[in-house]
Specification:
single chain; FAD/NAD(P)-binding domain; six-stranded antiparallel β-sheet; 11 helices; Aminoacetone oxidase family FAD-binding enzyme; seven-stranded mixed β-sheet; BaiN-like; RsdA/BaiN/AoA(So)-like_dom; flavoprotein; alpha+beta; 18 strands; FAD; 2 domains; elongated
Length: 387
C-alpha cells in the first residue's frame, strides 16, 4: 500500500501538519481508538492554543534549546496560527494573561477542524493502528508495520506525558534503531516532590507571585499546594531543571518585604500576619507552628528571634527535591530525539532523508501558557511546507 507521505501520530503536531499539507495520497496512523486525545486535555479541555505577543518573546520559554528553534517559531508563528483558525471558522479569545483559547473554550472544536482539513487535503486516518516497525528500504522509501510504504514519514508521536492518551514513548526504540540519538525522556511541566513536605493538609491553597529558586534558576509566578507536592506555573516551569537532590527555595511574600511591626497590636499572631501579609489563614498557621510559634499568642509579644525564624520560612522556605509526580501528571516531556539530528528549518533528519520528526517527540519542552502547542503547530507547519 503506497502513500506519498505517512504521519505517525494523530495529535496536535501530526494533524496540523496534515491540515497544512495537501497530498494526492496521505496516511495518518493513530495508535489510539480516536485521534487527538491529549489535545482534548490541553488547557483543562479548553485548549490553550498559543500565547499573544511578539514571537520574539517566545524564545525564552523553551529552556536552553529555545534559541535553536527560532526559525521554526518565526515561520509558523502565533499570528499565522491564529489567522489559520479564525479563517477556518474557529474564533479565538485572549485571556488577560495573554493565553489564546478558542472562543467556545472547547478543545473539540480545534480537533474537529484539524480532522476536517486533513481529510480535505487527501489524508486518510487509521485509528487503532500502533506502529511496531519502521525501516528504510534500499530505494529510500519507508516501510511501516511491514505493510505501508511511503516516500516520506513524519514522526508526530509525542513524548511520554499522559501515557494513557497514547503518548508513551513507544516509538523511541524504533528511532534509536534507525541510528537517531535519543535524549532520555523525563517529565516536564510536572509537580515537584520534596523531602519532608509539610503542606499535605493544605491541598488546593494557591499563591500569586511566589519566587522560586532551583539550582541557579529563578522564576516568579503562581504556586499551588497539593496533597503531596508543589505545583502551579512557577513550579511546573522550573521542573525541567529539577533532579533528585536539587535545592528548592520559595519566597511567599515580595522579595523586599519585611514583617510588619506588631508593636501595640492586640491581634493574635495568626490573625495579624495572615491579614497584614495577605496570606491564607491555614497556611499562616502552619508556618507559625513550623517556627515554634503558637498561633493564638499576641503578635506584639513575639520575640525577635521567633520573628526572625518565621520570616525565614516566609522568605526562603528551603526543601530538597526528591523527584516529580511522574509522567502520568506531566503536561510535557523533556528529552526525546536530539535536535542535532534534524534540520530545524524543515525538521527532516539530516542522515535519513525523507524522515521528519516534529512536536514533542523532539527534545523541546515549553513553559505553560500555550508554548508547547505552539511548537507542535510550528514544527508541523515547517514539515508540511518543506517542499
Amino acid at each position: 500500500m503506497k502513500y506519498e507521505r505517512i504521519i505517525i501520530g494523530g495529535g496536535a503536531a501530526g494533524l496540523f501538519c496534515a491540515a497544512s499539507c495537501p497530498v494526492d495520497k496521505g496516511l495518518i496512523l493513530e495508535k489510539q481508538s480516536s485521534p487527538g486525545q491529549k489535545l482534548l486535555l490541553s488547557g483543562s479541555g479548553q485548549c490553550n492554543l498559543t500565547h499573544n505577543g511578539s514571537i520574539k518573546e517566545f524564545i525564552g520559554h523553551y529552556g536552553e534549546n529555545g534559541s535553536r528553534i527560532r526559525s521554526a517559531l518565526y515561520r509558523g508563528n502565533n499570528l499565522l496560527l491564529m489567522k489559520f483558525f479564525t479563517e477556518n471558522g474557529v474564533l479565538l479569545e485572549e485571556r488577560e494573561d495573554g493565553k489564546i483559547f478558542p472562543k467556545s473554550r472547547k478543545a473539540g472544536d480545534v480537533l474537529n477542524l484539524l480532522l476536517e482539513l486533513s481529510k480535505k487535503n487527501g489524508w486518510e486516518l487509521r485509528a487503532d493502528c500502533p506502529v511496531d516497525s519502521l525501516e528504510q528500504k534500499e530505494d529510500g522509501s519507508f516501510l511501516v508495520n511491514r505493510t505501508y510504504v511511503a516516500d516520506e514519514v513524519i514522526i508526530a508521536t509525542g513524548g511520554c506525558s499522559y501515557p494513557d492518551t497514547g503518548s508513551d514513548g513507544n516509538l523511541f526504540p524504533l528511532l534509536k534503531n534507525l541510528g537517531l540519538k535519543i535524549i532520555p525522556p523525563r517529565p516536564a511541566l510536572v509537580p515537584l516532590t520534596v523531602r519532608d513536605y509539610p503542606y499535605g493538609g493544605l491541598s488546593g491553597i494557591s499563591f500569586q507571585s511566589v519566587t522560586a529558586k532551583l539550582d541557579g534558576h529563578r522564576l516568579t509566578g503562581d504556586l499551588l499546594l497539593t496533597h503531596g507536592s508543589f505545583s502551579g506555573p512557577v513550579i511546573l516551569n522550573l521542573a525541567r531543571w529539577a533532579k533528585p537532590g536539587s535545592e528548592l527555595k520559595l519566597c511567599y511574600i515580595p522579595g523586599e518585604s519585611h514583617l510588619p511591626s506588631a508593636s501595640g497590636d492586640r491581634r493574635q499572631a495568626l490573625t495579624f500576619f495572615s491579614e497584614e501579609l495577605n496570606l491564607p489563614r491555614r497556611f499562616t498557621e502552619q508556618i507559625l507552628r513550623r517556627g515554634g510559634i503558637e498561633p493564638s499568642v499576641k503578635a506584639a509579644s513575639l520575640s525577635g528571634s521567633r520573628l526572625k525564624t518565621f520570616q525565614a520560612f516566609l522568605k526562603e522556605d528551603t526543601f530538597q527535591v526528591t523527584g516529580t509526580s511522574g509522567f502520568s501528571s506531566a503536561m510535557a516531556t523533556a528529552g526525546g530525539v536530539c535536535l542535532d539530528e534534524v534540520d530545524l528549518k524543515t525538521f527532516e533528519c539530516k542522515n535519513i532523508p525523507g524522515l521528519f520528526i516534529i512536536g514533542e517527540a523532539l527534545d523541546i519542552d515549553g513553559d505553560t501558557g500555550g508554548y508547547n502547542l505552539q511548537f507542535a503547530f510550528s514544527s508541523g507547519y515547517c514539515a508540511a511546507k518543506h517542499v
